[in-house]
Specification:
Layout (H helix, E strand, L loop, with lengths): L6 E4 L6 E4 L7 E3 L6 E4 L4 H19 L3 E7 L2 E6 H10 L3 H31 L6 H11 L5 H16 L3 E4 L1 H18 L3 H9 L5
Antiparallel strand pairs: 1-2, 3-4, 5-6, 5-7
Helix pairs in contact: 1-3, 1-6, 2-3, 3-4, 4-7
Bound molecules: zinc ion.
């Protein structure tokens, strides 16, 4: 195996040109200067991306369908869904903000997951699905715009503040959204750009 040629990889973070030898299964290569992960040999990565993207998408649908938070104070009870919590911004004259929040925490993650499922399905089934290379390019651009985990942290911070004012209960949708965030992060963590482009390039024609 040591006779195979090393490949040159430019570090995404610091632009240093690194010489990376062929990796054994389970091995990873890091940048010499900034320790950014350059490549990894994870044969199961595509299966993980597919499984976790699909699970995340189902959880996102669940998260949009049930009560997200429940409040009770002074004998009054109220529950809000995820969509309602965004719609509140509309009624408070912040339509642009509502649109941005909706895009970053629901729409972009949903499009990203659909794209990842599409690309990983093409690789797993070895079929050159229509526009699959374009889909991958768009998905790689979208990754930084998916901010589900930031939203979740925001919710937890405000949760701590609201608890002092009212009895707050976490609904089924909250837990679905939390699990969705974890699955999305796992899927994104297993994206290996170099490996994805190589796998798409190796798909049979026709
Ligand atoms: Zn680097």
């Amino acid at each position: 195996m040591s006779t195979a040629p090393a490949s040159l990889i430019v570090c995404h973070e610091c632009d240093l040109l690194n010489e990376v030898p062929p990796l054994a299964v389970g091995e990873k290569a890091f940048c010499r200067r900034c320790s950014y992960m350059l490549a990894a040999n994870r044969p199961q990565a595509m299966t993980i991306v597919f499984t976790f993207s699909l699970t995340a998408l189902v959880l996102l649908v669940l998260a949009s369908s049930f009560p997200f938070l429940g409040f009770s104070a002074h004998g009054q009870e109220q529950t809000v869904t995820l969509i309602q919590s965004i719609a509140v911004l509309m009624t408070q004259d912040h339509p642009t903000l509502a649109l941005i929040v909706f895009a970053l925490i629901i729409a972009v993650p949903a499009i990203l997951l659909l794209g990842l499922i599409y690309v990983s399905l093409a690789i797993r089934t070895q079929r050159r699905l229509p526009a699959v290379r374009r889909v991958l390019r768009w998905m790689l651009h979208l990754v930084p715009w998916s901010m589900a985990e930031i939203f979740l942290i925001g919710i937890l911070v405000s949760f701590i503040k609201i608890v002092a004012l009212a009895d707050v209960s976490l609904g089924l949708s909250f837990w679905s959204y939390a699990l969705f965030t974890v699955c999305l992060l796992v899927a994104v963590q297993h994206l290996d750009k170099r490996e994805l482009w190589r796998a798409l390039g190796a798909l049979p024609r026709g």
